[in-house]
Amino acid sequence: MEIHNFSAGPCILPPEVMQEASQAVLDFNGMGLSLIEISHRSKEFVAVMEEARSLVKSLLGLPERFDVLFLQGGASLGFLTAAYNFLPEGGAAAYVDTGTWANKAIKEAKHAGTAHVIGSSKATNYDRIPSLDAVPSGSAYLHYTSNNTIFGTQFAAAPASSVPLIADMSSDIFSRTFDPEAYQLIYAGAQKNMGPAGTVMYAFDRDAIGKTGRTIPSYLDLAVHASKDSMFNTPPVFPIYVSMLTMRWMQSMGGVQAMELRNERKANLIYQEIDRNGLFEGHATVDSRSTMNATFRLKDEAHAAAFDGLWKGAGINGLKGHRSVGGYRASMYNALPETSVQVLVDVMQELERTH
Fold first, then answer.
1. Most buried among 2, 138, 198, 296, by the most CB within 10 A?
2. Pairing mode, if any, of strands 139-145 and 165-168?
3. Which residues contact 19 (CB under 8 A, 6 or more apart)?
4. What one-character DSSP code corresponds to residue 327?
5. d(Cα 292, Cα 155) in Å, to the nearest integer?
6. Does 51 lie in the same domain as 62?
7. Contact 74, 219 (CB under 8 A)
8. Cβ atoms within 10 A of the Cβ of 266, count?
9. What sign does the dihedral 282-283-286-289 (CA atoms) show?
10. Is the pTM of this model over 0.90?
11. How far is residue 167's CA from residue 171's CA, in Å, rounded to a whole number?
């Protein structure tokens, strides 16, 4: 039976990426050695790192002033890394609270300075992107989480800001086009649209770092990592390699523009059914819906056993919603085919027909 993977992360990856990555674990580039046992300073892996960094710049259309790193610690460490590198000693920055991960970013920023929350949708269980207050005078940057996996909300566009932007794009990186000019830092865990868990991508304005006036621990200092070409310590070679392969795949499919069209079709398909089918309702408000994570629930929980049996019987995996929201969550990252979304829609319609 074909499995339709709607897991919120780690993400589904293209079959051709999985095949090439599995071969590299056995024999990388005909070396007779595994990818995961060669030196990270060998010319073979240095070429992987350089290509991965180059592909990020190309796919996102980053300005020349940006450097790209692949590090460890995920976005959870990125929350603090962002603040340490861009929040001046004794300074303040603006933050938007749109859910669990945004809230964690705010918490970590408070270790480095003042975090002004200029908008929050907590009162409505994060079912929308909130309206924002003006950025307080003197703020170093505005930080936001572009997509919220747990609650299924997404910024339709970057927030208007009088100061530079910093964004955690872990769950929608490479899923749609955007203008990078307003940003000082974009960071993203690999495990949604890019590769397996184990690495995080930082794209940052090299001219904006080194100006906080604080002493930064070496591992949190982006300048230290940049000076070592992302190899200050032994990098996670396998996640970086798979991320490189996935970016090659995206490029071969037409780049981020093609991913955006692909994702819009999938999102339209599921949301049209949620709105049409009288047995279901969405969690996120219509104007805040995510193309990556569609959150929805049954209007009558008496149908839960029947629905669960139907989608599991159809080979659907990872559909249960997060405990903070309940219901269901269909995560539709770049590599998920439209046919999988159609299978889910067919199951929803079958429930309607029989109940």
1. 296
2. parallel
3. none
4. S
5. 12
6. yes
7. no
8. 23
9. negative
10. yes
11. 11
Domain containing residue 279: 255-354
Whichever domain contains 285, its CATH number is 3.90.1150.10
Report yes or no on 125 lying in a domain: yes
Residues 6+ apart with CB under 8 A from 273: 280, 345, 348, 349
Instruction: Burial-class residue 52 by CB neighbours within 10 Å (0-12, 13-18, 19+).
Output: buried
pLDDT in tens, the chain (355 residues): 899 999 998 989 999 999 999 999 999 999 999 999 999 999 999 999 999 999 999 999 999 999 999 999 999 999 999 999 999 999 999 999 999 999 999 999 999 999 999 999 999 999 999 999 999 999 999 999 999 999 999 999 999 999 999 999 999 999 999 999 999 999 999 999 999 999 999 999 999 999 999 999 999 999 999 999 999 999 999 999 999 999 999 999 999 999 999 999 999 999 999 999 999 999 999 999 999 999 999 999 999 999 999 999 999 999 999 999 999 999 999 999 999 999 999 999 999 999 9
Token pair of 333, please?
Answer: 């990252």
Residue labelled with tokens 């929040």: 87
Residues 246 and 298 occupy one common structural domain = no
319: CB partners within 8 A, 6+ apart: 6, 311, 328, 329, 330, 344
3-state secondary structure 276-314: HCCCEEECCCHHHECCCEEEEEECCHHHHHHHHHHHHHC
Q: Please name the amino acid found at residue 265.
A: R
How far apart are the C-alpha atoms of 156 and 329, rounded to whole Å? Answer: 19
**Tokens coding 162:** 């009088």
**Residue labelled with tokens 């990098």:** 235
For residues 158 and 294, membership in a common domain is answered with no
Distance CA 95, CA 88 (A): 15
The residues annotated with a catalytic role in the active site are 101, 168, 192
